[in-house]
Amino acid sequence: MAKQLDYHTIREIFTRFREDAPEPKGELDHVNAYTLVVAVALSAQATDKGVNRATAELFKVADTPQKMLDLGEEALIDHIKTIGLYRNKAKNVMKLSKILVEDYGGEVPNSRAALESLPGVGRKTANVVLNMWWRHPAQAVDTHIYRFGNRSGVCPGKDVVAVERAIEDHIPADFQLHAHHWMILHGRYTCKARKPLCGTCLIRDLCMFEEKNL
Fold first, then answer.
1. Catalytic residue among 3, 6, 124, 169, which?
2. What is the average per-residue pLDDT within 143-158?
3. DSSP for the chain?
4. With 80 as the cut, is the pLDDT of residue 212 above it?
5. pLDDT recorded at residue 206
6. At what angle do helices 33-42 and 123-134 cross, to 10 degrees?
7. pLDDT by residue (tens digit) across 63-77?
8. Which residue in the list 60, 89, 142, 169 is annotated as catalytic?
9. Cα-atom radius of gyration of the chain, to the nearest Å?
10. Within the chain, what is the greatest distance between any pair of CA atoms?
11. Catalytic annotation present for 124
12. What is the rounded CA–CA span in Å between residue 192 and residue 179?
């Protein structure tokens, strides 16, 4: 775990991220808040590309909780069976759809607590939905952010909750909205787990990663 970077270094890091990608986007395909919830729930232990392939046809026929209930669990499984843990995920999607119809009038709630009360929706999923759909500066910490945060010193922490708190506490407010997207994309494509591309990293001179190869 790297030492926590100071304010000025973090500001320079995110200034560079913003200059490189002013409006970073999540890579899960969706058409509304409901399909975003479903897509993020399906993405656990799966790639975004794999989820997008599975949901391309699904969301054409089931883009609301009621349509998903009308589709039925077995038909849902046929759409998502290429995704890991698809049977358990299908059960959760049907359960959360039923709750949304019965308790929320078919609408997706926009508080973290309400989102986390839905089957298959954890803190990370809730934060993704709050950030991407409602543009709330929530920080969804995944394996890429955890790795990058601890290597670089931007947001080190012993667990995802500590990393989330470090993001909120140390990254300047004007970068908070897009912070987790910049870090996810950097972790996914540059600060990779096995072979980080330190030689072409745009923040290599600021990073605290001791094993970086310049």
1. 124
2. 97
3. -PPPPPHHHHHHHHHHHHHH-SS----S--SSHHHHHHHHHHTTTS-HHHHHHHHHHHHHH--SHHHHHHH-HHHHHHHHTTSTTHHHHHHHHHHHHHHHHHHHTTPPP-SHHHHHTSTT--HHHHHHHHHHHH--------HHHHHHHHHHSSS--SSHHHHHHHHHHHS-GGGHHHHHHHHHHHHHHTS-SSS--GGG-TTTTT---TT---
4. no
5. 97
6. 150
7. 999 999 999 999 999
8. 142
9. 18
10. 56
11. yes
12. 18
Joined tokens for residue 84: 């890991």
Sign of CA dihedral 29, 142, 204, 19: positive
> Torsion over CA of 33, 37, 42 and 48, rounded to 10 degrees?
50
Q: If you average pLDDT over residues 182-200, what whole number do you get?
A: 96
Give pLDDT, residue 213. 61
Amino acid letter, 59: F
Place of tokens 């232990």: 45
Kindly state the tokens that stand for 75: 């038909």
> Quick one: tokens of 96?
């959360």
Asked if 33 and 21 touch (Cβ cutoff 8 Å), the reply is no
**Per-residue pLDDT, 211:** 80
Q: Residue 210: pLDDT band by 50, 70, 90 thresholds?
A: confident
